[in-house]
């Protein structure tokens, strides 16, 4: 987890998570490698929490392994907060995951999601980059309320983003942040049918293993460029 993403999540915790009562916190995509030195759990030291780290793979900082990639192994309406940092770009069918987050959240429970808006392909499966409107779409589909959406866009030059002005050391990934809240009166019945069909199909497909990445047609990289530009 890079520093800016950690600080973005830390700001969510500071702003939205009260310290005067106990919370059940689910960390979705919690597994850390030997190279990582910090986790979301580290920022929760001032809170009284029941922490559950969830991931599709077992490992360090994982309390519950997802037997199916789009079914969180927790009861409905059981989590006060769901945190997910730098995981959603690796989830092929993220809308199914959002439906599951909505399921496990208690009414008025909140989800904090951070994900990159730019940057190179990393890890074996890197599917998405996110903007604020992407978080709006996720909220609309899952029936959650969108409390906040932010992207660390490059500075503007006129009407365009100046990508050359990016601070590549500290802001390379252009973090996007979405804060969601489950309504007190969540539309349980219609969302049940939408969720179960969505999650069933996502789990049936599983991932990208049966869809090979084909080599692009020669000349793709030259489209739109003057002939004298290499």
Account of the 3D structure:
This protein has 230 residues and is an alpha/beta fold. The protein has one domain: Rossmann fold, CATH 3.40.50. It has four helices and nine strands, in the order αββββαβαββββα. A seven-stranded mixed beta sheet has the order 3-2-1-4-5-9-6, sandwiched between helices. The protein has a two-stranded antiparallel ribbon with strand order 7-8. α2 (94-104) links the parallel β4 (79-85) and β5 (105-116). α2 (94-104) packs across α4. The longest helix has 18 residues, at 188-205. The two termini are 35 Å apart.
Mean pLDDT: 95
Q: Write down the overall geometry.
A: globular
Number of domains: 1
Largest sheet: 7 strands, mixed
Low-pLDDT windows of residues? none
Give the CATH superfamily: Vaccinia Virus protein VP39
Q: Give me the secondary-structure category.
A: alpha/beta
Relative helix content = 10-25%
Look up the CATH topology.
Rossmann fold
Strand arrangement across the biggest beta sheet: 3-2-1-4-5-9-6
Task: Report the CATH C-level class.
Answer: Alpha Beta
The total strand number stands at 9
> How many DSSP H or I helices?
4
Rg on CA atoms, Å? 19 Å
Q: Compute the separation of the termini in Å.
A: 35 Å
Domain Methyltransferase type: 62-113
Keywords: Methyltransferase, Transferase
GO biological process, one term: methylation
GO molecular function: S-adenosylmethionine-dependent methyltransferase activity
């Amino acid at each position: 987890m890079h520093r800016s993403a950690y600080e973005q999540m830390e700001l969510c915790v500071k702003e939205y998570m009260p310290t005067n009562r106990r919370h059940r916190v689910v960390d979705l995509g919690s597994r850390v490698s030997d190279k990582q030195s910090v986790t979301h759990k580290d920022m929760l030291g001032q809170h009284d929490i029941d922490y559950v780290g969830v991931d599709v793979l077992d490992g360090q900082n994982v309390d519950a392994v997802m037997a199916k990639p789009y079914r969180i192994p927790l009861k409905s309406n059981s989590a006060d907060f769901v945190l997910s940092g730098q995981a959603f770009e690796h989830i092929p069918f993220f809308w199914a995951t959002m439906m599951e987050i909505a399921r496990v959240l208690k009414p008025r429970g909140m989800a904090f999601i951070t994900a990159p808006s730019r940057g190179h392909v990393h890890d074996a499966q890197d599917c998405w980059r996110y903007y604020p409107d992407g978080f709006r779409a996720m909220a609309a589909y899952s029936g959650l309320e969108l409390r906040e959406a932010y992207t660390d866009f490059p500075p503007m030059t006129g009407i365009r983003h100046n990508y050359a002005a990016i601070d590549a050391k500290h802001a390379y990934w252009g973090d996007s942040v979405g804060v969601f809240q489950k309504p007190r009166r969540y539309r349980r019945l219609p969302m049940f049918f939408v969720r179960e069909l969505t999650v069933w199909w996502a789990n049936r497909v599983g991932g990208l293993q049966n869809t090979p990445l084909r080599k692009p047609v020669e000349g793709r990289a030259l489209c739109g460029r003057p002939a004298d530009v290499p």
